[in-house]
Amino acid sequence: MAITLPSPPKVGMVSLGCPKALVDSERILTKLRADGYGLSPDYAGADVVLVNTCGFLDSAKEESLEAIGEAIAENGRVIVTGCMGNEADVIRARFPEVLAISGPHQYEAVVEAVHEAAPTVPNAFVDLVPEAGLKLTPRHYSYLKISEGCNHACAFCIIPSIRGGLVSRRPDAILREAEKLVAAGTRELLVISQDTSAYGVDIRHQPREWKGREVRAHMTDLAGELGRLGAWVRLHYVYPYPHVDQVIPLMAEGLVLPYLDIPFQHAAPSILKAMKRPANEAKVLERIRRWREICPDIAIRSTFVVGFPGETEGDFQYLLDWLDEAQLDRVGAFRFEPVEGAPANALPDPVPETVKEERYARIMEKTAAISAAKLAAKVGLTLDVIIDEVDADGGATGRSKADAPEIDGSVFLRNSRHLKAGDIAPVIIEDADEHDLYGAPISA
Ligand code: SF4
Description:
This protein is α/β, with parallel strands linked by helices and 444 residues long. Helix content is 32%, strand content 21%. It has helices at 19-34, 58-74, 88-94, 107-117, 159-163, 171-183, 219-227, 247-253, 269-275, 284-294, 313-326, 353-376, and strands at 10-15, 38-39, 48-53, 78-82, 100-101, 141-145, 147-148, 167-168, 188-192, 208-210, 213-215, 232-235, 259-261, 299-306, 330-335, 382-390, 396-400, 411-413, 424-432, 437-441. The strands form 6 sheets. Strands 2-1-3-4-5 form a 5-stranded parallel β-sheet, sandwiched between helices. Strands 16-17-18-20-19 form a 5-stranded mixed β-barrel. A 3-stranded parallel β-sheet has the order 6-9-12, covered by helices on one side. The radius of gyration is 25 Å and the shape is globular. The two termini are 48 Å apart. The model has no long low-confidence stretch (mean pLDDT 89). The structure holds iron/sulfur cluster (SF4).
């Protein structure tokens, strides 16, 4: 029997402005073609028209507004992007019927708006990419990127110069992606970005409608909504801005995993200042204590750099003492290395390699001892464990809520032949070492 494929929606494009805008137009059209859209050379054949605008000079702005007006008159279904998108108020005032407006390089926002205005029909016979997208992780967990770039200028980092400033995704687009992932079998969503706490700052936390509710482009709203999708939600790269306190109750309620990945990098005030770290404030220890009062199970993971230029023995000892107080659950440490192009390379007083090595060994010893004590306290408890792998001999490897994949510890299970990857099973913890737990599923 012949299969009749539905004809794909068609997009028309009016591209104004400089070569950079042209490249943007090409990228947008390439993505739309990959998503199954057809292109229309005229207004009449298009299901939706994209106008990529220029706003460099007043004359270019007027030309852009005229192009929008023409597209509305000829077709009626118009999405505006490009430099004039930064003046959405001017466009809306003149053309309230425009379907969506986004700024330059916001490819994802444009593509998302086209999908909304003229949805494609998923078709297993022609789609190369499953509806939930291609994944490089196992089926049961997925990374969910909520923004790109970063507005900070940490002295050891070149990400802002490579990736540019913060560009946040729309909350409804993120939630739609997450919902598809969960429908496709994801049991754990790992929220990532360069700076998760800053999510939405660049788009002024603009709310979008999702399932009849207004959801702000804000970490707290997003975390709560993700938590309602029924998968584990794990937050990575969270800087301790004051509003982070708002997600701790969501953890206590069970909507979001009681897990915070906060890259502190150091504790000594002079080093944090030299590193130009964001949210560098003195009262972090007090806040950690409060978080643990609200959510006693919270696991805090962090990373630290030792041997940053100018780090004295006193600074390093301050860090070790701070770790004694903070009792973080998981810690990764790095020896400072100059990265080409990073401002830290020009700082005075580099720390000799032998001293870096010695400090690295000391911080690892300290954090391993803290981790071992924390894990030993879990022996005898029953913990929910997500299964990553079941071996041929009936053993399994999984993770508790305190363990992110790849970077934290594991829970090694016996008697697990009946389990499969992605199952979440109650496990009685029988033993522990410095980094891992050992146990058996209760149902075995
Ligand atoms: S290390 Fe600093 S500058 Fe680099 S991505 Fe993180 S917050 Fe931004």
